[in-house]
Structures are given as structure tokens and as C-alpha cells.
Design brief:
Blueprint lengths: L3 H11 L4 H17 L1 H21 L5 H10 L9 H4 L7 H18 L4 H9 L11 H7 L4 H25 L12 H11 L4 H9 L6 E5 L2 E5 L8 E2 L8
Antiparallel strand pairs: 1-2, 2-3
Helix pairs in contact: 1-3, 2-3, 3-4, 3-9, 4-7, 6-7, 7-9, 9-10, 10-11
């Protein structure tokens, strides 16, 4: 099975990310790993998935920003106490105050290297059902011009769907009765939360970018695409998905 580190390296090379920026993203990914392994793995998966999604949705999407946002959107969690960070339920009001701050901290770190990614990280929970930080806070921090705002908000919506997708299909969560969901179970959730990007979500599933499940058989690997009416095809890499 190809490691997440190896897959990330390929995406960084494919996008011709500078050596200094590669060091930057790997430095902060290592900090996340030291803090919390599940968050680190989630970040790595999104850094790998983000550019693939951007390529699927077309040339108006910024692959580099999707990679940086995926890798570092949760960097603000390094400032959250372990007992709060590892919770999946039973959050107190004080706990939530700490959790709400993490997109803001992520923004302040990311803006030093990529403002587009920073603005997306600031908004990624705002577009989810928990809806933080508030519009007022975002407007106070944001450095976007009116001309840039529409592009960033669209990218943020797409990224928020990936964030929910990866968390739901890889982690047990009380939002879903303590279960890890299948990709097909997540599909209607993604659309219901943000119906304005329903077409994009369906495109990603139909293309197999989201929703593919790989089955390991001794000596061979078979990929069952996310689209239910598609046939079985042979995949060339091993990356089993729960």
C-alpha cells in the first residue's frame, strides 16, 4: 500500500510546489502528527484528494490552494488541549469556544504562505452544519477584494464537502450514531448540507473521485467505482478505503 507521504509527494511534484513551500507544509503536517494522529491522517488525505477534485471539476479550480488547504486547514488544532481535541461528543460551552477558534488560528498561520488557502481554511466550518466562525468574524479577518470573494467562497464550499466526506468515511462520530459511514451513505448528507454544489458532488461521485471503494484480493486489486451502475474495473494502486 502506497503511503500517504508518498502520495502527497507526488501531488507536490505534480503541482511544481517550491522546495521552500514543501518544507513549510511538511513542517506543519509534522506538528499536527505530533499533536493528534487521526487529525494528521485526515489532513494528509485531504491534501492528496483536493487537487484531484480540482482537476475533475475543471480549470477554474485552484489545485495548489486545494492541496494547501487540505493539509493545513486543521493546523489551528495544535492549540487545543488534548482532552478537548479527542472528544467526539459531550462538548461543553467552553470546549466549543476552543474548537470554534481553530479555523481562525489556521487562517493566521496559512496567510503567511498562501492567502487563498488561508481564506478557505477560515471558512471551511462556516459552510458546514456547525457554522463557525460567524460571518462577522470572517469579514473582519478576511483580506479579500470583492473580485476575489466569489472564487474563494466557491472553493470553500467544495472543500467543506471534502472535509465532511473524509471525516465521515474514516472516523466514528456521534453525529452518525458512532458509526463510520460508507461513501454512498455520505453522498446525500453532502448534498443536503450544501445543495448549491449538488451538481459538483454528483460529478465527483460519478467520476469515481469520491465514493470509490478498493477491495484487496491476493495478488490483485479491484476498484468498485462510486457510481452504482458502473462495472468493476482494475486499479493500479493500493489504497483501501473504509
Amino acid at each position: 500500500m502506497e503511503s500517504l507521504e508518498s502520495q502527497l509527494g507526488k501531488e507536490l511534484a505534480n503541482l511544481d510546489v517550491s522546495e521552500s513551500d514543501q518544507k513549510y507544509i511538511r513542517y506543519y503536517l509534522d506538528l499536527i502528527k505530533q499533536k493528534d494522529t487521526p487529525t494528521s491522517e485526515h489532513s494528509m488525505r485531504l491534501a492528496i484528494l483536493g487537487p484531484k477534485v480540482a482537476r475533475c471539476l475543471g480549470p477554474t479550480m485552484d489545485q495548489r490552494a486545494m492541496l494547501f488547504t487540505g493539509g493545513l486547514h486543521d493546523i489551528g488544532k495544535i492549540e487545543i488541549e488534548d482532552d478537548v481535541l479527542k472528544k467526539t461528543k459531550g462538548f461543553s460551552a467552553e470546549d466549543m469556544e476552543k474548537m470554534v477558534a481553530h479555523p481562525i488560528i489556521s487562517y493566521l498561520i496559512l496567510e503567511k504562505v498562501d492567502l487563498c488557502s488561508a481564506e478557505m481554511a477560515l471558512r471551511h466550518h462556516h459552510n458546514q452544519e456547525d457554522g463557525y466562525p460567524s460571518t462577522e468574524v470572517i469579514n473582519r479577518l478576511s483580506k479579500l477584494t470583492n473580485g476575489e470573494k466569489a472564487k474563494i467562497e466557491y472553493h470553500s464550499l467544495i472543500f467543506s464537502r471534502l472535509d465532511v466526506y473524509d471525516a465521515a468515511t474514516n472516523r466514528k462520530n456521534d453525529k452518525y450514531d458512532g458509526k463510520v459511514l460508507t461513501p454512498e451513505e455520505v453522498r446525500p448528507i453532502l448534498i443536503e448540507q450544501n445543495p448549491e454544489v449538488a451538481n459538483e458532488v454528483n460529478t465527483l461521485y460519478d467520476a469515481g473521485v469520491l465514493g470509490s471503494k478498493k477491495i484487496i484480493v491476493p495478488g490483485i486489486e479491484i476498484m468498485v467505482p462510486g457510481k452504482k451502475d458502473q462495472g468493476v474495473s482494475i486499479a493500479t494502486t493500493i489504497n483501501e478505503k473504509a
